[in-house]
Structure formats: C-alpha cells, structure tokens
User: Fold these one by one.
Assistant:
Number 1:
Amino acid sequence: MTKLTNIAFIRAQAGKGDLLGARLNKLATPSRNEPGCINYDVHRSIDDPDMWFVYENWRSKADLDAHFEMPHMKEFVAAIPSLVDGPLDLRHLTMTTEPAHAAP
C-alpha cells in the first residue's frame, strides 16, 4: 500500500498567527486518532510567527481523502477565509521510507 504525505504551508492574516495556530493545533488530536493516520504534526516558523507548517503521513489515499471529510477538517476549511492570508501551499507526496518510530 502506498503511504502518502501531505504538507501544508499556511500563512496567517496579519495579527492572527496565534489564532491560526490554536486552530491548527486543535486538529492534531482528532486527526491522529483517525484510522490510517501515521502522524500529524503542526509547526510554527521561528523567523515568521505568521507562517505555519503541517506535516502529516497517511497509510493510503483513501485514509487521506476520508480525513478531509471529517467534521473537524470541514470546520477548519470553513474558517480558512477568516484566518489565512492567500492560498494554502499544499503538497502531496508519496512516502518512500517506512515511518520513523517515536522516541521512547
């Protein structure tokens, strides 16, 4: 089965970096609990507090497609126009290595 990686660079509207981050971080737990989620991690730029990065890996395209149909994702997508500056920079890749295991 082909594992997929979804990478998103997301710029907050001016003055909304913390709010966007809170909304992105709120997605982590329910996303990690979805079937097929390998990992779901949110990052903030050190140099630009309005720039956020989401790195997620999924067991299959079907799992990733199902992720975008989940209520928590639909709620976030609906909020994008009020939080995000410009288009999302989304990248879809195929994972070519086995996922790393979390450190003990």
Number 2:
Amino acid sequence: MSADKNQWQSICKLDDIPAQGARVVKREGKTDIALFRTLDNRVFALDDHCPHKGGALSHGLVYGDTVACPLHNFKISLQTGQAQAPDEGHTPCHKVELRDDTVWLAVD
C-alpha cells in the first residue's frame, strides 16, 4: 500500500468493468467516481462529471487513454483528467491500482 493519507479500498474485479467501458462508485455526499478500463486492461479513476456541462463520463466512449463525454463529445484524458484542445477544463483524478485481478481505489 502507498504511504499517504488515503485508505485503499477493494472495489471490484477487473472483469467487472467492461473493456473500453466504465463502472461507477457511488459516494454519499460527494461526486461519484467512474472507473474506466482500457482495451489493454489499464484502469483509471475520474470524477463522474464532465467539466463542461456535468455529463456523466461513465456513459461516454472510451478509446485509448481518453473518454468522450456523451453530451458534447468533450475529450478527457483518463491519465490527467484534462480536457483535450480545443476543449478546456479538468476533471479530478483518483488514485487507483490493479492488484492481481482486483481494482483498488484510494479513498479519503
């Protein structure tokens, strides 16, 4: 485990997230987190909220290291949460690890 202020929580098995898809982690009183799985089985975690109009990124299309918002096709980097030019904005990222076949999320 990483030495930081966060606690790591086991969320799901890798196969519970569809390839090039997402799974939502509900958080009471906070923005939900979307877990994304790339075609090559890397996992990323972002707030499930597009910086443009608040669309659910978990409903977007995943390709490469990017998710396209379903509302207006804003392209958001899964690695940084940064919108790709010419779009502007940022979605918070969360620490996530794949340990064996289990997805772990750092929660505060």
